[in-house]
Amino acid sequence: MMDNYTDCWYRSSDGLRLYARDYHCRNLDKPGPETVLCMHGLTRNSADFSGLASHLCERYRVIAVDQRGRGRSDYDPEAARYTATTYVKDMFTLVDQLDIPELILVGTSMGGLMSMLMAAMQPQRVRKMIINDIGPEIDPRGLARIKSYVGKSAPVQSWEDAVAQCRSINEIAFPDFSDEQWLDFTQGVYREENGALVLAYDPAIAQPMEGEASAALPPDMWSVFERCTSIPMLVVRGASSDILSPDCVKAMCARHSGLKVAEIPDRGHAPTLTEPASLAAIDTFLANL
Fold it and tell me: Of 115, 106, 99, 81, which Cα lies nearest the Cα of 12?
């Protein structure tokens, strides 16, 4: 047991050793609690969900994953496999190994796209979905910003340097972060390895994004989204997001009549899901179903 979770290791279908945190439900009087599967964004890892998982595991079992090439999971020797469809295959391998028949999906950014794909592929397995700051269309402004730094960060010599670098890239999304929050954020992006600070992700994850858009994602995510519209869904949007536009949210609502939307003030891409407004929206959404 580490903190309030146990380590979960499993093998992908192509032989990589992958990692997830397993937060067991603390309510011992609740038999067979539902399982929440948390999936992070492009450069992030399971540490992003430590706060949300600690909140939810009063009522649910929470699995927070490190996708291949991130955190404690193996890096893929074939960068071309760093795609959403590969990650989704890994997720089904994991939940099959854990013998989990039904899931509540929580996906931030790339993890939200994965949630849509999983729900379109196996809708009978997905009870509810929380999509964090992503939609079937990605605002080109935000995509260009992400491409400008993923896998291109200059080496850092100290935690102070690392914090400064993370802050320069992400301050637009978190204008009210304290110094302590920036350090916590940075410790999810970097790790110590052989006395040096290195990124906690494989820089090669950027390679599929450099080619055609279809190399990293299916070409038509709207058709994928429309196959999820029978599933209860909450969309969380940062009020100043440059990835999920208000017009995209409106189009999502037009296609999914029961879609719930929470807009989080003072947040860009993407809310941490530990903001009071995020937690209130998530708790209400889950309690009402």
Answer: 81
Cβ-contact 229, 124 below 8 angstroms: no
| Mean residue pLDDT across the chain | 93
- Per-residue pLDDT reduced to its tens digit, 221-234: 999 999 999 999 99
Q: Is residue 1, in this structure, part of any structural domain at all?
A: no
Q: Give the residue from 96, 92, 87, 101 showing the smallest Cα distance to 34.
A: 101
Considering the domain boundaries, does residue 125 fall inside one? yes
Q: Judge whether residue 213 has pLDDT over 60.
A: no
Question: What span, in angstroms and rounded, lies between the C-alpha atoms of 44 and 39?
Answer: 9
Q: Is 101 helix (H, G, I), strand (E, B) or coil?
A: coil
Residue 184 in any domain: the answer is yes
CATH for 135: 3.40.50.1820
Q: What pLDDT sits at residue 222?
A: 96
CA atoms within 13 A on the CB side of 224: 20
Question: pTM above 0.90?
Answer: yes
Q: How far is CA 244 from CA 57, 62, 269, in A?
A: 28, 26, 8
Residue identified by tokens 């070409």 is 219
Strand extents, DSSP E, 148-259: 190-193, 196-199, 233-238
Chain centre to alpha carbon of residue 232: 18
- For residue 215, pLDDT over 60 is answered with no
C-beta of residue 36 within 8 angstroms of C-beta of residue 103 = yes
Q: Which two tokens stand for residue 199?
A: 């990124």
pLDDT digits (tens, 9 = 90+) for 151-186: 778 899 999 999 999 999 999 999 999 999 999 999
User: How many whole angstroms separate alpha carbon 211 and alpha carbon 206?
Assistant: 10
At residue 202, the 3 state secondary structure works out as: coil
CA distance 231 to 242: 26
When divided into structural domains, the chain yields a total of 1
What is the rounded CA–CA span in Å between residue 79 and residue 86?
11
- What is the CB neighbour count within 10 angstroms for residue 59? 17
